[in-house]
Amino acid sequence: MAATSSILPNSLAATTVSTLSSLESTTCDSTTISVFDIPIKHRTQLLNLGIVRPLIELTLSKELDVKQAAVTCLAATTELNETHQDMRRKDLIDALIFTLSKEDSVEVQDEAAFALANLAKDFSNKADIRKSGGIKALVKLLESQDPDVKKNAALALSTLLDDFSNRAEIRYVQGLGPLFELLTSEFHEVQNNALQCLIRCAEDFNNRAEIRKLNGIRKLVDVISGEYMLETIVLGLQCLVNCLEEVDSASLVVDANGIASLVKLIQNDESKIKRYAAIALARAVKSDRGQNAARESGALQIIVLNLSSNDASVVNSSVMALASLALNETNQVEIYKMGVGELLLKLLSHEDTETKREAMAALANLSQYNKIKPRLHSVESTQTIIKLFASDDSQTIINTSECILKLSEECMY
């Protein structure tokens, strides 16, 4: 069998581009199919021959079939691993956004949103899409009745939200509310794309404040507590972790009975769920109410068991949660009874830097409890702790200093 040529015959490529200058709908439809069927590696040739310009012109056609064919072609030609110079054309971005804003056909909206999602992968396009009103147009599509339109609109937004200014823009155009509405969609791809958007939005302080106003914390707790797919629960946890930068959010998790849900999830068989649930728990127990709720839900025993996991990420996040829970005096007593001090000392020799850092933080917090101090005053324990002063990680050194300081304070045996 002859090998498939890596180059599309120039005559065919040139004919394809030439054909697109026609405004006859049947011709454009057949050409669309031919472009879509051409492997992605050959589409660069079409771009080099100037396929974008006639396609942009055809998006303005009054004939719906022609317009749909043109937008479908653009969506197909934007699926390149490397950005072609014509994928940075301002008139291309403007044409797609105009189509999103003015066209009622869900098929056209779907393809235009997908094309914008592809263009948004190039960081230089993100600002141009925003300046041309692309974020506002995409947010409007989140309320479409068509699930594919919602899916691709959210996909495009999730790619655009890597940019700080775009995260502010989506708040200005009131896009956070519609994203939360998508969490109740019956289609998991729609849910997941919306969560990807919210994860990025929650990186910003002002967006987190808006999320609280929209009752978003409770809605995220509903996701991690409900009958959702594994990937969706992981994304919900990641979003919740980002939201939990402030004490106000932590209090809302407690109000929504989210602590019990997080404790349940740290028992899950899936490592990713265990990991993000433990990180969320570490951030959610910033108040005595949160600490008490975690203890009453059996968090301490489960976390201690997870410290023996073979998965380094689970161990790291579990130590992080233990460090947070060790700030509470009642929890310190319970942790002491479990003999966790020796286990934490062993983790100071762990190969993972973050695990050593969090283990030292946990020891520093536990050192406030006088009864554990004698166990840490042995020569071997002290030497193990002091060795961490040689760490390259500044926070580990800070945690070590705090631990030594607390151990040196007068204690009552």
Helix-strand blueprint:
Blueprint: H1 10-19, H2 25-37, H3 40-48, H4 52-58, H5 64-77, H6 90-102, H7 106-119, H8 123-131, H9 134-141, H10 147-160, H11 164-172, H12 176-181, H13 188-201, H14 205-213, H15 216-225, H16 230-243, H17 247-255, H18 258-265, H19 271-284, H20 288-296, H21 299-306, H22 312-325, H23 329-337, H24 340-347, H25 353-366, H26 373-376, H27 379-386, H28 394-408
Concise structural overview:
This protein has 413 residues and is an all-alpha fold. It has helices at 10-19, 25-37, 40-48, 52-58, 64-77, 90-102, 106-119, 123-131, 134-141, 147-160, 164-172, 176-181, 188-201, 205-213, 216-225, 230-243, 247-255, 258-265, 271-284, 288-296, 299-306, 312-325, 329-337, 340-347, 353-366, 373-376, 379-386, 394-408. It starts with 9 loop residues before the first helix and ends in a 5-residue tail after the last helix.
What does this structure look like?
The protein is mostly helical and 413 residues long. Among the domains are: 45-214, Leucine-rich Repeat Variant (Alpha Horseshoe), CATH 1.25.10.10; 215-304, Leucine-rich Repeat Variant (Alpha Horseshoe). Helix content is 71%, strand content 0%. Helix 4 (52-58) runs antiparallel to helix 5 (64-77), helix 16 runs parallel beside helix 19 (271-284) and helix 19 runs parallel beside helix 22. The longest helix is centred in the C-terminal third of the chain and has 15 residues, at 394-408. The N and C termini lie far apart (84 Å). The model is unreliable at 1-8 (pLDDT under 50).
